[in-house]
Specification:
With 123 residues, the chain is an all-alpha fold. The protein contains five helices and no strands. Helix 2 runs antiparallel to helix 4 and helix 4 packs antiparallel against helix 5.
């Protein structure tokens, strides 16, 4: 067995001599972030037939990389330490707050865009 496998299955943290690369929740979060950003970039490239590198680093758009990051973090905490503990409850609460905020921001940004377009058509 290797340490990442043992540490991700057991409820014991890795020894201090192991680098942070073996931190299951951190790696899960980073992978989810990268997958969401890549999916956004590839989707725009496929639909619009243009390569826009700003979509890899810019905010906004779907899929939400922040929501994917906190969801993966909460899931990894649940798998690593159990879904009944306070660590998972904290991670899940954080994930819900981030996703709720992202939904609200997208909703208000969409309604602002409609108002701006309406004013533009009136001019």
């Amino acid at each position: 067995f290797t340490w990442p496998l043992i540490c991700s299955i057991s409820h014991h943290p890795p020894p201090p001599s192991i680098p942070f690369f073996y931190n299951f929740p951190l790696i899960s979060s980073l992978v989810a972030f990268a997958v969401a950003r890549s999916a956004r970039f590839l989707t725009i490239w496929y639909k619009e037939k243009q390569c826009d590198a700003k979509k890899l680093v810019g905010s906004g758009g779907m899929p939400s990389s922040r929501s994917a990051t906190v969801a993966a973090f909460a899931a990894a905490i649940g798998f690593q330490v159990g879904f009944g503990g306070s660590s998972f409850a904290t991670a899940m609460t954080l994930a819900c707050v981030v996703m709720y905020d992202a939904f609200g921001v997208r909703l208000h940004a969409g309604s602002q865009a409609e108002v701006c377009l309406l004013h533009l058509h009136l001019l």
